[in-house]
Amino acid sequence: MQVTVCRTEHFNAAHRLHNPAWSDEQNQEVFGKCNNPNYHGHNYELTVRLTGPIDPDTGYVYDMKNLSKLVKREILDTFDHRNLNLDTEDFRALNPTAENIAIVIWQRLRPHLAPHLALSVTLHETDRNSVEYHG
Ligand SMILES: Nc1nc2c(c(=O)[nH]1)N=C([C@H](O)[C@H](O)COP(=O)(O)OP(=O)(O)OP(=O)(O)O)CN2
Ligand SMILES: [Zn+2]
């Protein structure tokens, strides 16, 4: 029997959507206000889901306290209250769209989880915009 456990966390970060291979005009046309040279911020809401069998000894798929600690260590400590473009190595050469942020989060978490657990992440960038990545 497979069960999914979920943990939701929040982080605040600034970013700028920009393609350095394009002209300023093209960047403005495609990314609009998200291309603001002085950056802008979002209150990101992140949900991490782990799917797997229930351990008969604990009754847990995965201890959510430990999941919280993992997300804090691997994601929040790096991204919270940072400028994603300037302060993080992850987005030095990668446009910090919601899609790319979700993939980076998944890649940061995956090595720390047992292979039998399926991992997916949902990232809300605004109340109305969200992306999902399942690996
Ligand atoms: N596929 C993607 N499209 C867009 C992304 C993205 O990461 N992936 N990002 C943006 C902007 O950065 C931002 O998320 C959009 O902000 P905004 O237009 O203010 O969105 P809201 O939901 O708050 O406002 P609405 O007016 O309801 O759209 C754009 N696109
Ligand atoms: Zn944005």
Keywords:
5-stranded mixed sheet, Tetrahydropterin Synthase, Chain A, zinc, binds the ligand Nc1nc2c(c(=O)[nH]1)N=C([C@H](O)[C@H](O)COP(=O)(O)OP(=O)(O)OP(=O)(O)O)CN2, 4 helices, elongated, 6-PTP_synth/QueD, alpha+beta, binds zinc ion
- The number of distinct helices, counting runs of at least 4 residues, comes to 4
CATH topology-level name: Tetrahydropterin Synthase, Chain A
**Rg from Cα:** 17 Å
Give the strand order, joined by hyphens, for the main sheet.
3-1-2-4-5
**CATH class type:** Alpha Beta
Q: Which homologous superfamily in CATH is the superfamily?
A: 6-pyruvoyl tetrahydropterin synthase/QueD
Sheet of most strands: 5 strands, mixed
Indicate how many domains the architecture comprises: 1
Pathway: Purine metabolism; 7-cyano-7-deazaguanine biosynthesis
Active site: 34 (proton acceptor), 81 (charge relay system), 125 (charge relay system)
Protein name: 6-carboxy-5,6,7,8-tetrahydropterin synthase
Organism: Hymenobacter crusticola
Descriptive report:
Pfam families: PTPS. Its cofactor is Zn(2+). Its EC number is 4.-.-.-. With 135 residues, this protein is of the alpha+beta class. It is 30% helix and 30% strand. The protein contains 4 helices and 5 strands. It has helices at residues 24-31, 64-79, 84-87, 98-109, and strands spanning 2-15, 40-53, 82-83, 118-124, 130-133. It has a 5-stranded mixed β-sheet with strand order 3-1-2-4-5. It is elongated and about 60 Å long. The structure holds the ligand Nc1nc2c(c(=O)[nH]1)N=C([C@H](O)[C@H](O)COP(=O)(O)OP(=O)(O)OP(=O)(O)O)CN2 and zinc ion (ZN).
